[in-house]
Design goal:
- With 394 residues, the protein is of the alpha/beta class.
- The protein contains ten helices and 16 strands.
- The chain folds into two domains: 275 residues, 3-Layer(aba) Sandwich (Aminopeptidase); 114 residues, Alpha-Beta Plaits (2-Layer Sandwich), CATH 3.30.70.360.
- It is 35% helix and 27% strand.
- The chain has an eight-stranded mixed beta sheet with strand order 1-2-4-3-5-16-6-15, with helices on both faces. Strands 10-12-8-13 form a four-stranded antiparallel beta sheet, covered by helices on one side.
- The chain starts with a helix and ends with a helix.
- The mean pLDDT is 96.
C-alpha cells in the first residue's frame, strides 16, 4: 500500500484545522490534573470524528479507540496535555490567557498532532486490521500522569502491542525528525538530605558540630558518586538544587537541609546509585561527627526505545518527509513519564522538528518565548498515522 501518498494528502487537508486546534489549546493552558477544559475539548473532537472514547482516565485523561475492519494488534498513540508554570512572553495573538501558565513545552502541539492522526486513521479504518488506542495523558510535567492512567487500566482492554509518542524539538527544523535507539532520556529521581550537628556560638566552633561545614563537604563528595563510582561511559548526573540552614551570621548551624535531582540512563546504574549516595553521605557526616538522614524517591525510569519501532518511525519519517529527514539525537538527561509505558510495552518516542529555518535561534522549551513553526503539525500527524499503519500490517 502506498500509505505515504495517501497520508500526505489527508494530512495536507488538515493543516489549518490543526493550527486552529493548537492555538485554541495554547490560549487556555492547564497544569497537571487540572486539564478539564482541554479534556472536554478533546472529547468534543473525538465525538465529532465518530471515535468511541472514555474520559476521566487517570483523573483528567481521555482514551479513544479506533477499531479497524477486523481483529489484529493494537497500537497506542500518546499525547500529553498539561502546561507549565511559566509566564508567556511571546506576544502572539493566541498567547496564554492564564497568567503564569503556558504551553511552553509544546503539549498543545502534541494534542493537535494526535487529533490529526486520529482524523486520518478513522477515515481509513476499513483498510486496516486491529486497533488504534488514542491516549491523551495528563500531568506529564509533574511525572504522575502515566502512572495514574495505568492505575485506571489504560494498558488493558485492549492492551497495546506497541506505543508511539512524539515531542516537539525546537532545535530541529520543520521537516526533520530526531530519534535514538535504546536509552533516549534519563531516569529522574529526587534526593532530600538533612544534616544535623550541634549549634552554638560562632566564636566557639570547637564546642559545636557545624552542620554547614558537613553539608558543604557532602555536596562536594557527592560528585565522586559519578566521577569515581560509575563507569564514565554511563551518563549520570547528581545536582544539589537547594541548601537551607542557619539562623544568623554568628551562630553555628545545627541543621542543614539539601534537595537535589539524580539523572541516570543505564537501568543498572539507576538501581545502585541510591546506595552509593547513602554511603557517601553517611561517611561524610561521620567524618565531622554529624548526623544525616536521607530521603530518596524514584520518580520515573529511563526512557528506552525499542529497536524495531525506531526503525519504523525512521521509515515513516523518510516516506512522509524525505530520505534526509531523520537525524540521530544524543541522550537527553531530561525525562518523560512516557518511560512508564515503554517499560511495559515496546515502542518509540521521537522528536518532531519545530524550528523555522529563518529564526536566528531556537525558541527553547520551558521559556516564556517558546513557540513553534506550526507547519510541523500535519507532518507529525502523518508520521504517527503512517507508523501505526505499517506496524499493524507487520
Amino acid at each position: 500500500m502506498r500509505w505515504a501518498e495517501i497520508l500526505n494528502e489527508k494530512a495536507g487537508r488538515l493543516k489549518e484545522e490543526l493550527i486552529a486546534i493548537r492555538r485554541r489549546i495554547h490560549g487556555s493552558p492547564e497544569l497537571g490534573f487540572e486539564e478539564k477544559g482541554t479534556s472536554q475539548f478533546i472529547c468534543k473532537k473525538l465525538k465529532a470524528l465518530g471515535i468511541r472514547f472514555q474520559a476521566g482516565v487517570g483523573k483528567t485523561g481521555v482514551v479513544g479507540i479506533i477499531e479497524g475492519r477486523g481483529a489484529g494488534k493494537t497500537i497506542g498513540l500518546r499525547a500529553d496535555m498539561d502546561g507549565v508554570p511559566v509566564q508567556e512572553e511571546t506576544g502572539a495573538a493566541y498567547a496564554s490567557e492564564k497568567p503564569g501558565v503556558m504551553h511552553a513545552c509544546g503539549h498543545d502541539a502534541h494534542v493537535a498532532c494526535l487529533i490529526g492522526a486520529a482524523s486520518i486513521l478513522v477515515s481509513l479504518r476499513d483498510r486496516f486490521q486491529g486497533n488504534i488506542k488514542l491516549i491523551f495523558q495528563p500531568a506529564e510535567e509533574i511525572d504522575q500522569g502515566a502512572k495514574a492512567m495505568m492505575l485506571d487500566g489504560v494498558l488493558e482492554r485492549p492492551r497495546p502491542d506497541a506505543f508511539l509518542a512524539l515531542h516537539v524539538a525546537p532545535e530541529l527544523s520543520v521537516g526533520t525528525v530526531g530519534i535514538k535507539e535504546g536509552p533516549m532520556m534519563a531516569a529522574i529521581d529526587t534526593l532530600k538530605i538533612s544534616v544535623t550537628g550541634i549549634g552554638g556560638h560562632g566564636g566557639a566552633p570547637h564546642q559545636c558540630v557545624d552542620a554547614i561545614v558537613a553539608a558543604s563537604a557532602m555536596v562536594m563528595n557527592l560528585q565522586t558518586a559519578v566521577s569515581r563510582n560509575i563507569d564514565p561511559a554511563q551518563s549520570t548526573s547528581i545536582s544539589i538544587g537547594t541548601i537551607s540552614g542557619g539562623q544568623a551570621d554568628n551562630i553555628i548551624a545545627s541543621r542543614v537541609d539539601l534537595t537535589g535531582t539524580v539523572r541516570t540512563i543505564d537501568p543498572e546504574v539507576h538501581q545502585v546509585i541510591p546506595q552509593i549516595i547513602e554511603r557517601i553521605c553517611k561517611n561524610t557526616a561521620a567524618t565531622f561527627g554529624a548526623g544525616v538522614s536521607l530521603g530518596y524517591q524514584k520518580l520515573i525510569p529511563p526512557l528506552i526505545n525499542c529497536k524495531e519501532m525506531v526503525g519504523r518511525v525512521a521509515e515513516s519519517s523518510k516516506a512522509i518527509l524525505g530520505l534526509n529527514s531523520v537525524v540521530e539525537v544524543p541522550v537527553f538527561m531530561g525525562g518523560d513519564d512516557f518511560a512508564f509505558f515503554l517499560k511495559e510495552i515496546p515502542g518509540c518516542y521521537f522528536y518532531l522538528g519545530t524550528k523555522n529555518p529563518n529564526w536566528k535561534k531556537a525558541r527553547s522549551l520551558h521559556n516564556g518565548h517558546f513557540d513553534i513553526d506550526e507547519r510541523c503539525l500535519h507532518l507529525g500527524a502523518a508520521i504517527l498515522a503512517h507508523t501505526a499503519l505499517i506496524t499493524l500490517e507487520r
